[in-house]
Amino acid sequence: MKVLGIESSCDETGVALYDTERGLLGHRVHSQIDLHAAYGGVVPELASRDHIRRLPLLVRETLADAGCALGELDALAYTAGPGLAGALLVGAGMAEALAMALGVPALPVHHLEGHLLSPLLAADPPAFPFVALLVSGGHTQLMRVSGVGEYELLGESLDDAAGEAFDKTAKLLGLGYPGGPQLARLAEQGTTGRFRLPRPMLNSGDLDFSFSGLKTAVLNVVSAPGWHAVDAVDLAADFQQAVVEVLVRKALAALRRTGLRHLVVAGGVGANRQLRAQLDEAARRRGWRVYYPEPELCTDNGAMIAFAGALRLAAGERVAGDGEIRIRPRWPLTELVKPV
Ligand code: ATP
Ligand code: MG
Ligand code: FE
After folding, report:
1. Which of 22, 82, 192, 235 is 20 to 30 A (C-alpha) from 13?
2. Ligand 2: distance of its center to the CA of 296 in Å?
3. What is residue 8's predicted lDDT score, i.e. its pLDDT?
4. Do 2-116+298-335 and 127-292 share a fold?
5. How many Å apart are CA 162 and CA 164, to the nearest integer?
6. Residue 131's beta-bridge partner residues?
């Protein structure tokens, strides 16, 4: 079964072709970073317009890369939420229109389910059940994943998401937008231990997180008299270490609590090298194992949407097939159910 996936929930336009027999046959992502950089954040109206501009070409290119004709598609899958309503409508409209023209089903997919299942696209995927640490720009969650659509929330951030904390702190350090990856690069050149930053909720006894206080602590450092911009590398290193330490500690606690031995990390912050190194080391010592998506599939992409859609369709999920454009800008992951 060949499924074309379309992602347009925020500021990346992603298209991918996934074949249930042959795997990922092609994927393309267009990032709108340059478009929004001048505003320091995503401008929803501009995002929607750019998705409209890019999608038709990306669909054509993805199919050409894979040597697949439009008529060979068995289904479409699109991100229906959560995300920006106007941006979601573009991908949903495109997918539903194509599906109707081709006479094939179009499946609305949950963006976070896409992130969550993306490590299963790797060469050596984990088997269910596992614990998932979802660390993206909008979410920080620990889930127990027993199967497709079987997600139990174990804990989550009470305020900022981990990626959001990286981005906001990067802004405080005068880095460009979006600053998360730049902050991580800066941190790699720095030395930890110079700045005493908090480890929010490290010993809270639950699996929840809080990152907004960390950003405030950084603000206090950079606004104190005697702050020198040359120290930003070391402050970046200490900030990154504080986030990583909390994420590692809570992920390990989630494994202990559930009795599971496999951890899956998904979402943009999953690309962070320190997070990966420290999770791998901690898990190795306990005989546990950590799985990651391919680095390019950590941030938003169409491949994870095509894949999640294909898994659901293969499991027998039915599709309304009425051409209705289904988007759900606010959509808790825990409302998902097993494919039926
Ligand atoms: P959501 O999926 O919750 O709706 P999103 O789609 O915006 O949010 P992703 O695309 O998964 O999130 O990830 C983007 C986030 O990942 C940004 O906040 C970015 O700063 C962060 N990020 C990307 N690479 C790194 C890195 N190497 N280290 C730390 N953070 C990173
Ligand atoms: Mg993005
Ligand atoms: Fe995302």
Report:
1. 22
2. 12
3. 98
4. yes
5. 5
6. 144, 263
Atom number, ligand 1, closest to the C-alpha of residue 300? 10
Residues with CB under 6 Å of ligand 1 are: 10, 111, 115, 136-139, 163-164, 166-167, 178, 180-181, 184, 267-269, 271-272, 299-300
Q: Provide ipTM, 2 decimals.
A: 0.98
Ligand 1 atom, smallest distance to 139 CA = 3
Residue 62 alpha carbon to ligand 3 centre in Å: 20
Contact 91, 6 (CB under 8 A): yes
Contact by Cβ (8 Å): 80, 5: no
Cα of 282 from ligand 3 centre, angstroms? 26
Q: Which CATH class is domain 127-292?
A: alpha beta
Q: Distance between alpha carbon 264 and the CA centroid of its chain, in Å?
A: 12
- The superfamily CATH assigns to domain 2-116+298-335 is ATPase, nucleotide binding domain (3.30.420.40)
- Pull the structure tokens for residue 157: 């951030």
Could you report the average pLDDT of every consecutive run of 10 residues in the chain (340 residues)?
98 98 97 94 97 98 98 98 98 97 97 96 95 97 97 98 97 92 98 97 98 97 96 98 98 98 97 97 97 93 98 95 93 93
